[in-house]
Amino acid sequence: MKITNIHRSPEPCTEAGWLAFQYELEHHVDRDFIMALRPLGSFIFLDTLAQPFFKIQNHHYMIKGLLNDTSIRVAVHRDHQDEQEPIKQLIESL
């Protein structure tokens, strides 16, 4: 899936050592996309809620988003910003 834009999230998490980015996507987030991200870390997908969401957490990053949305949020620890690159590559390969 093509990432059309990446911008800094307005959430104030810098004080805690994290940088958050909003990844705008070419298509809506669907179940297959979410499941393809599952190997990236601990995985939560609450698909029975009125607004289903997912969260993937690893030591140095977190990915979260809503089913059928056109963006996801990626937060990385400021000392491990290089971990964004494999995440971007995986998303672009889907």
How is the secondary structure organized here?
Layout (H helix, E strand, L loop, with lengths): L2 E6 L9 E8 L5 H7 L4 E5 L6 E5 L3 E6 L4 E7 L6 H10 L1
Antiparallel strand pairs: 1-2, 2-6, 3-4, 4-5, 5-6
Structure, explained:
The chain is an alpha+beta fold and 94 residues long. It has two helices and six strands, in the order ββαββββα. Strands 1-2-6-5-4-3 form a six-stranded antiparallel β-sheet, with helices on one face. β3 (42-46) and β4 (53-57) form a beta hairpin. The termini are close together.
Order of helices and strands: EEHEEEEH
* Strand arrangement in the largest pleated sheet: 1-2-6-5-4-3
* Major beta-sheet overview: 6 strands, antiparallel
Q: In angstroms, what is the radius of gyration?
A: 13 Å
Count of DSSP E strands?
Answer: 6
Cα separation of the termini: 5 Å
Q: Per the principal axes of the C-alpha atoms, what is the gross shape?
A: globular
Number of helices: 2
Strand content: 35-45%
- Report the mean per-residue pLDDT as an integer: 94
Helix content: 10-25%
How does the helix and strand content classify structurally? alpha+beta
- List the uncertain runs: none
Briefly, what is this?
With 94 residues, this protein is an alpha+beta fold.
Keyword list:
single chain, 94 residues, alpha+beta, six-stranded antiparallel beta sheet, 2 helices, 39% strand, globular
